[in-house]
Design brief:
serine acetyltransferase, domain 1, UDP N-Acetylglucosamine Acyltransferase, domain 1, globular, alpha/beta, 2 domains
């Protein structure tokens, strides 16, 4: 085929280098490298490995397969192979978790110039401690499933809740991340909570304290802050924020260990898009907070808080004047 035979709309020219001789790459390399090496910009240029985000996500998926056996694996489980399956999965989880915890501890030690903390031994101990907590975590998750079935008439059965409810998925990750956070494992709990947010648009800080029988209905847009305390049998809907009041610019260090988020007592219901702020704010037991409410003061037990209905105007040929 000659030049005259080239099909319309196609091009036979080859890419050529910039003839002006102004290649920006070397200059940009120097500028970026100087910024990173000088410490002006955050980076991880260190001789120790940082935890792998993809590996932490795999840990979450491993825990999901263990906590809900038979749901998220192609292997058919029966009573006679359940022990083998759980033993294999738990052994693999322990090894992988210890590896990531070790990376997190080493990274933290290097960043803060700490003395040796025997990260190899500690990482295995911490991984074993989390695994020992899995039966308790699973028991809490069963109460969360029951709360979903009780609180949502659309929930047909446990299988549907486990497979498809974003609230349960986010709560599962929170319950695991919370244990790791309590054990003071660096960075991994926040990677887990960020993954839950990425999947569900539900943002639960691992530092929050949440009791059993917890139900998030629909879920998107829910935010639960680090120092929030939530009792048992609490139900919240999409768009709810349990957050902090406006903080000064220097609050990051000063208020790091100060309670900044509200306390929600047992059996409270919080409807969609409600915002409850402040570390001194307490919502008393059995109270109901209506949709779109903005609350920065405590309310006692058995209280209903609601906005006045908005004044609606209707326009159209079928509407009465």
């Amino acid at each position: 085929m000659g030049e005259q035979d080239i099909l319309p709309g196609t091009c036979n020219s080859e890419a050529v280098t910039d003839s002006t001789g102004t290649d920006p790459v070397p200059e940009v390399v120097e500028a970026l490298a100087e910024g990173f090496k000088s410490g002006r910009w955050a980076s991880h240029i260190e001789p120790v490995a940082i935890p792998s985000k993809s590996e932490v996500i795999e840990l979450v998926e491993q825990m999901q397969r263990i906590l809900f056996p038979g749901y998220f694996t192609s292997m058919v489980l029966r009573p006679n192979n359940l022990h083998y399956y759980l033993g294999q999965e738990l052994s693999l989880l322990q090894e992988n978790l210890a590896d990531q915890i070790g990376s997190a501890i080493r990274h933290d030690c290097f960043r803060h110039n700490q003395v040796c903390t025997k990260c190899g031994e500690r990482s295995f101990e911490l991984a074993s401690e989390l695994i020992s907590c899995l039966p308790e975590i699973r028991n809490l998750l069963e109460s969360d499933i029951e709360a979903t079935l009780t609180g949502d008439p659309a929930a047909a059965h446990r299988d549907e809740v486990i497979f498809s409810y974003p609230g349960l998925f986010a709560t599962m990750i929170y319950r695991v991340a919370h244990v790791l956070n309590t054990m003071e494992v660096p960075i991994i709990p926040r990677i887990m909570s960020e993954y839950a947010f990425h999947r569900t648009a539900i943002d639960i800080n691992p530092g929050a304290s949440i009791g059993g029988s917890f139900f998030i209905d629909h879920g998107a847009g829910v935010v639960i802050g680090a120092t929030c305390k939530i009792g048992s049998r609490v139900r919240i809907y999409q768009g709810v924020t349990l957050g902090a009041l406006s903080l000064p610019k220097d609050a990051g260090k000063k208020l790091r260990n100060v309670k900044r988020h509200p306390t929600i007592e047992d059996d409270v219901i919080i409807y969609s898009n409600a915002t409850i702020l402040g570390g001194d704010t307490v919502v008393g037991a059995r109270s109901v907070i209506g949709g779109n409410v903005w609350l920065t003061k405590s309310v006692g037990p058995d209280t209903k808080v609601a906005l006045d209905p908005p004044q609606l105007k209707y326009f159209g040929p079928e509407q009465k004047k």
